[in-house]
Amino acid sequence: MFGGIALETIYWYTLLICAGIAVLLVIFGDVFDFDGPLDPMLLVPWLAFTSLFGYLGESLTEWSSVLIFVISAAISSVLVFLLNFYILMPMKNAEATLSSSEKTLEGQVAQVVTPIPIKGMGEIQLQSVTGSINRPACFYAEQETMAQRGTKVLIIEVKDRVCYVIPYDGMLKS
């Protein structure tokens, strides 16, 4: 008994509340970025596992409540460590798409799809083994002529999904 309430009841309600919070974290977890010592993505499962094993320990054994809590906390800590190390960390480091990042586009040669005027935007297409992507493009430095359809260009910089290009003849002039 803790404060006149059976420990089984406390463990049970904690487990139910953690399950509800876990569902909300699965749905809205990516909206919030928690960078602190108490990450809800780790705290909630720890509380849930501790309350689950505490409830089972209180229901199925005659051990002391303190021993059950310590064993539950230890098992929960191991499970949450494994959850973090093998599931959450790889998911945080994983790319969301197969498309290349903007920085990897710099230095690549592309083909003009929509002509690029001297002071304006056109469109380029990059071919790769995973397919092709089209991006808006404009000149990096001022040019004398516009880039016609089919012209090869070199991507110098990418800002806000716009590629800044220069004409490419196969060899750069020094």
From TrEMBL:
Signal peptide: none
Ranges of residues in domain Membrane protein NfeD2 N-terminal transmembrane: 6-95
Parts of the chain that traverse the membrane: 12-29, 41-57, 63-88
UniProt KW keywords: Membrane, Transmembrane, Transmembrane helix
Source taxon at top rank: Bacteria
Membrane is among the record's keywords: yes
Protein name (Swiss-Prot/TrEMBL): Membrane protein NfeD2 N-terminal transmembrane domain-containing protein
Organism annotation: Enterococcus thailandicus
